Write the structure tokens for this entry.
Amino acid sequence: MLAALLFAILVALRPTTQARAEELSKPGSNLARLVERLQREYPDIRHRTLSEIRQQRDELVLVDVREPEEYAVSHIPGAVNLQDPTELRAFIANQPGEVVLYCSVGYRSAKLTRNLRNDGVSNVSNFAGSIFHWANSNEPLVSGEHPVSTVHPYSWF
């Protein structure tokens, strides 16, 4: 019952208008502060912005590094789901262009990006804000092939 109530609250807080989505990314917003903190903690990797991903979507390969259960709830259309660093290295090695990793907000993907870059993988970057930024900006989400509007939270916190 408590889980259902918390889920309902999360859904109710999801923005429903473009104006609200833009508010979330304004300087000083919680999301903007989170992204700034992420960039400070991981200054040695490239962080792709939502705007860059929108503009270069056809040139980028998106990899969702969340757990399969999270990916099953929703993911960015066309994204591949991989978590294992060995599998990621092999996958990225076969990509001609840049691979952008994402997770819930960008911390798991930033850590993996750093590890891959330290191992010599150069065509990998992180999506700062990740799927929550994507969803809060009213970008499309899918579960399988079906459009959805929910995102699996990493934790209830």
